[in-house]
Design a protein that fits this description.
Layout: H1 8-21, E1 32-38, H2 47-56, E2 68-74, H3 77-92, E3 97-99, E4 111-117, E5 121-128, E6 142-148, E7 157-163, H4 170-188, E8 195-200, H5 209-215, E9 222-223, E10 265-270, E11 280-281, E12 287-288, H6 306-310, H7 318-331, E13 337-342, E14 347-351, E15 357-359, E16 364-372, E17 385-393, E18 395-396, E19 399-403, E20 410-416, E21 422-432, E22 441-451, E23 456-458, E24 466-474, E25 481-489, E26 500-509, E27 514-516, E28 521-524, E29 529-536, E30 542-554, E31 566-574, H8 580-600
Parallel strand pairs: 1-2, 7-8, 15-22, 24-31
Antiparallel strand pairs: 1-13, 2-4, 3-4, 5-6, 6-7, 8-10, 9-10, 11-13, 12-13, 14-16, 16-20, 17-19, 17-21, 18-20, 21-22, 23-25, 25-29, 26-28, 26-30, 27-29, 30-31
Helix pairs in contact: 1-2, 2-3, 2-7, 4-5
Length: 604
């Protein structure tokens, strides 16, 4: 029994719901949803409900806005096709959809056309692929060269939009065969290409000459993704394939009725779409939209289960799914045929920061992250990325790998060669051999400087590791005796020597008698020195000695090491000034000595 039509308020609620729901549907994901639809001329009011639901339908986890519509029975691209573009842009956003502009010849019942999502697909070229005549094609087949956005010409594919002569009978079958021969010759001339043969074929069985011509061996051989040959007409075994006619009661003037009993509408593909490499058909995605195989043979599409359709339309209610079935019955006398196609991989390479300066012997690596950046809804939406990473020059770390779409990428360590002092350069090359991959070749040079180690020394003392400063003899409290010295960074290799750090000073001995203005420092440039002073300030008499161990390292770069230790040795003696009693005793002793001398020389 045909489902009851919705009232106007109910239809309005459904339309409002669809508009909100579509905000969550991906418009720009790169995988391709291709729709073939004989719209039977211009857009009718119910077409928007169908087109919106197509973008919501989830098959294999993929729910996205359509990318390509091949159309039939278009009065012209400027009128009929543009009216459908307007409906699509009203659903998915202004300016998203565009149309082809070529109008083929016709002897009646319109002509083929094409609409594409300008955010995800580029239209490269459009041409006629057959001629019209009373003995051949009723309408010219049009061929479109298309390219997924973000890819180069290696990812181009060709779509044929055809509307073959209708009705049974040997004369009509012969005319279909003539057109198929022309289309096939056109396709064969392209060589090994990705081809989609879409349209209203108006055939009843796979044994017809037209179908056999398209599927015959050769360069442009067509294949049915479902691989279900037979007599499709009026056979319940093919109920789920039928596309015509969705109604038994006309909803508009001249609508074809008769119920669901024919497979007229197709998407056949070349072998290149069936190898799971690059552009490829996603298995299990081919369907006649709205046909869940639950309707009555020769009955209306509305006799099918709304619940079965609802299962494919996330967020829809039973009422809304039923509204879609009703819209299919009133929008056209054909159902849309949909298939999803994976796009090629898209390589992205990210090289980590390379240090500009390292010290010889450093163990330094830089991360190279390689990922499949194809912007798709699911993993199945893009080919896997296979790649080879190679290095040269002052880099090593060759690798191979694979990354699926939606992966996190693979990280490889690029090891910098640091054994040679000077400016060095390495190169990383990444190549993907995945079919038609975008950005498949990547090259980047990495340049850095390798420095020799710093070398601490006492300026003017050659290679001496110890510097002794002798302060001689001083009187305690008489002030400071000063000695100066310099610490320097020897230039090991001109232009490529690391800076010098004094990290620690360890004193020992009579450090209370000496004072230094020496402090730790960092990054003393090669060839430069710093002047310091040591002071001897004893407060008592005696011999004094102190030692200062100076610990050095390279400046803080990769490869920095501890360097040789220098020793500063300070010595000095303090003699106290004589006191008053000592001076009196010295005076008495001096007087006695003088008297003795005088007495020795008295005359006899």
């Amino acid at each position: 029994m045909r489902s009851r039509s919705l009232s106007f308020p109910a239809r309005r609620r459904v339309a409002s719901y669809l508009s909100a729901l579509l905000l969550t549907v991906s418009h720009a994901s790169a995988q391709l949803r291709v729709v073939d639809y004989n719209t039977a001329e211009a857009a009718r009011p119910s077409l928007g409900t169908v087109l919106a639901a197509i973008g919501v339908e989830s098959v294999n986890g993929i729910a996205k806005a359509p990318d390509i519509f091949t159309l039939q029975e278009q009065e012209s691209s400027e009128t009929t096709t543009q009216s459908i573009v307007n409906v699509l842009n009203g659903i998915y956003g202004a300016g998203i959809y565009a149309r082809a502009t070529l109008d083929g010849g016709t002897l009646g019942a319109g002509r083929p056309g094409l609409i594409y999502n300008s955010q995800t697909v580029q239209l490269i070229a459009q041409k006629t692929a057959s001629t019209i005549s009373d003995a051949g094609a009723q309408r010219q087949t049009l061929r479109y060269q298309l390219r997924p956005a973000g890819y180069d010409s290696a990812a181009d594919f060709f779509v044929y939009s055809s509307h073959y002569k209708s009705s049974e009978g040997s004369t009509n079958a012969a005319r279909r065969s003539v057109e198929a021969q022309e289309v096939r010759a056109n396709a064969d001339a392209l060589g090994s290409a990705h081809l989609i043969y879409a349209g209203d074929f108006n055939i009843y069985r796979s044994s017809e000459a037209m179908y056999q011509t398209l599927t015959a061996p050769g360069e442009g051989q067509a294949f049915d993704p479902l691989n279900r040959p037979g007599i499709w007409h009026d056979d319940a075994a093919f109920l789920d394939l039928h596309t015509q006619a969705p109604t038994t009661t006309a909803r508009y003037f001249r609508q074809v009725t008769g119920g669901m009993d024919d497979r007229f509408d197709f998407q056949l593909v070349s072998a290149e779409f069936l190898d799971n490499e690059g552009l490829s058909y996603i298995a299990g995605s081919y369907r006649a939209f709205g046909n869940t195989g639950t309707h009555v043979l020769n009955g209306e599409i509305t006799s099918g289960s709304a619940a079965a359709l609802q299962a494919r339309l996330p967020g829809y209610t039973i009422e809304q799914a039923a509204a879609v079935l009703e819209a299919l019955a009133s929008a056209s006398d054909h159902l849309p045929v949909i298939a999803d196609y994976q796009v090629p991989a898209k390589m992205a390479v990210q090289i980590g920061n390379v240090p500009s300066r390292v010290i010889t012997g450093a163990a330094v690596s830089v991360e190279a992250t390689i990922s499949n950046a194809a912007a798709v809804v699911t993993v199945a939406g893009a080919d896997e990325l296979d790649y080879i990473l190679s290095t040269s020059g002052s880099l090593s770390g060759d690798a191979t790998g694979m990354d699926a779409a939606h992966g996190t990428g693979n990280t490889h360590a690029l090891v910098l060669a640091t054994s040679t002092v000077g400016n060095v350069t390495g190169r990383v090359d990444v190549h993907s051999d995945s079919q038609a991959a975008a950005n498949k070749d990547f090259t980047q040079e990495l340049s850095f400087s390798v420095l020799d180690h710093a070398k601490p020394l006492f300026a003017g003392q050659g290679e001496a590791l110890t510097l002794t400063l002798d302060f001689g003899t001083v009187e305690p409290g008489a002030g400071s005796e000063v000695r100066t010295f310099s610490l320097a960074n020897w230039t090991s290799t001109l232009g490529f020597t690391a800076g010098l750090d004094l990290d620690r000073i360890t004193p020992s001995g009579a450090t209370d008698a000496f004072r230094l203005n020496l402090t730790t420092f960092a990054n003393l440039a090669p060839g430069m020195g710093l002047d310091f002073a040591a002071m001897f300030e004893p407060m008592r008499g005696g011999d004094f000695e102190a030692r200062y161990d100076l610990y050095f390292s390279d400046e803080d770069l990769a490869g920095a090491t501890d360097l040789r230790t220098l020793q500063l040795h300070l010595i000095g003696t303090a003699i106290p000034e004589p006191g008053a009693a000592t001076l009196l005793l010295i005076g008495i002793l001096g007087s006695a000595i003088k008297r003795t001398r005088r007495q020795r020389w008295l005359p006899s």
